[in-house]
Design brief:
Layout (H helix, E strand, L loop, with lengths): L7 H6 L7 E4 L3 E5 L9 E5 L11 H22 L3 E5 L15 E6 L18 H11 L4
Length: 141
């Protein structure tokens, strides 16, 4: 897997590639997606170059958590959309193409533009045992 430092997002952060900025601070950058699924589709990325969400520092994760709702609110007001998807993929099997943590915010419109989802629900088996294993695996447990 390529290192996040070599990604297109690292080059945008370094100022080598221009972008249409929405928001920036010392930990987060948001900009319009150049291949939008709908009008206003944007990305929110940490300045910290990590491929997977679970690799982010608490500080970067918290910074994204603080700004993401405000960006979503501004997007709705600016575009007139009333609905949106927030998508974040981790790894190639999860359809991540750029190996730098990023959140897509994709407005949904009545014309059907936006993210297409196919959700195939399964059934929960051995839920308590699985929940216990996950709890026990959490850092700081």
């Amino acid at each position: 897997m390529p290192e996040p430092q070599g990604t297109i997002f690292a080059r945008i952060l370094a100022g080598e590639i221009p972008c249409h900025k929405i928001y920036e601070d010392d930990r987060v950058l948001s900009f319009l997606d150049v291949g939008p699924l709908s009008r206003g589709h944007l990305l929110v990325i940490p300045r910290e170059c990590k491929a997977f969400l679970h690799e982010l520092s608490d500080e970067s994760a918290a910074a994204i958590g603080r700004v993401l709702p405000r960006i979503c609110s501004a997007l709705l007001e600016a575009t007139g959309a009333e609905h949106y998807n927030v998508l974040q993929n981790n790894g190639s099997l999860a359809n991540q193409e750029v190996m730098h943590v990023h959140f897509h915010v994709i407005p949904r419109y009545a014309d059907g533009s936006g993210l297409e989802l196919a959700w195939r629900s399964g059934s929960l088996e051995q839920g308590e045992a699985l929940a216990r294993r996950i709890r026990e695996s959490m850092p700081g447990s």
